[in-house]
Specification:
- The chain is of the alpha/beta class and 249 residues long.
- It has a single domain, classed as Purple Acid Phosphatase, chain A, domain 2 (4-Layer Sandwich).
- 23% of the residues lie in helices and 21% in strands.
- The protein contains six helices and ten strands.
- The protein is globular, with a radius of gyration of 17 Å.
- It binds fe (ii) ion (2 copies).
- The site of one fe (ii) ion has 4 residues, from loops.
- One fe (ii) ion binds next to loops.
Length: 249
């Protein structure tokens, strides 16, 4: 079985939806979707159903867009639960899964930011600050999302492939002088995630969010991003699934 990866498919853009629809049948293979499908629950459901029909296994963790609450009447954590439930109802995998010699481990994550946010501190152009709604928590969001993984932080004997939406390190971003959005490093990285990737002995980690594709080895971990991105960010209107590795079931 082949394992493929993609992130940031943003299928609320019709161009992206059409590209995902055009993916052929991979009925013997698995796909990791590392967050940012849409903020609209109907689009999320429709996209997961489409992918479930094309792949034998679909692995998924929500990104920040999924937790925007503009069409949702509860807070972002409630929405996270709703999305995990709709995954469970469809057989989309959001928990660790064991194959013969490999584990695939989804890791919930958020970037570090302090809440409640002072209006003077928010990055005005960053939509999460306007559209996410958080209950009062005793810890920062990176810590809180990290705590959701606690039960899965064990020493896995087999080879481990993990994935998250956010980045475990700013080393997975170019120098800010090359970034269009200079504050991207401030809304992308979780050191909690970095510690967890190390703890579970991950050899390959797939991530998304920055829309900047990577396949790079840092401290013996292979980090991969394969973001479809927004239509305006692509030169070609093509979807490339990133082949990660061959896995025995
Ligand atoms: Fe994205
Ligand atoms: Fe994102």
């Amino acid at each position: 079985m082949k394992l493929y990866a993609i992130s940031d498919i943003h299928t609320d853009f019709i161009e992206n939806w059409n590209l995902i629809k055009q993916i052929g049948n991979y009925h013997h293979d698995a796909l990791i979707v590392a967050g940012d499908i849409s903020d609209n629950l109907d689009v999320i459901k429709k996209t997961l159903d489409l992918l479930q029909n094309k792949f034998k296994y679909v692995f998924y963790t929500p990104g920040n867009h999924e937790l925007w609450t503009r069409d949702y009447h509860h807070n972002s954590l409630h929405k996270l639960d709703t999305i995990i439930n709709l995954c469970n109802n469809r057989g989309v995998i959001t928990k660790p899964h064991k194959f013969k010699a490999h584990w695939i481990i989804p890791l919930f994550s958020w970037y570090h930011c302090k809440i409640p946010l002072n209006k003077n501190n928010i990055i005005q152009e960053w939509t999460d600050y306007h559209l996410c709604q958080w209950p009062l928590l005793q810890m920062d969001l990176a810590e809180y999302f990290g705590s959701l993984n606690e039960q899965y932080l064990i020493n896995y004997e087999n080879s481990v492939i993990s994935f998250s939406h956010f980045l475990p390190t700013a080393k997975l971003l170019p120098d800010p002088k090359y970034l269009k959005f200079k504050k991207l490093p401030d809304v992308s990285v979780s050191t909690v995630l970095a510690a967890q990737i190390k703890l579970i002995g991950s050899q390959i980690h797939i991530f998304g969010h920055s829309h900047i594709n990577y396949d790079i080895l840092i401290d013996d971990v292979r980090y991969i991003q394969n973001a479809l991105r927004y239509p305006r960010e692509r030169k070609e209107n093509l979807v490339n699934l990133k082949f990660v590795l061959e896995i025995d079931e």
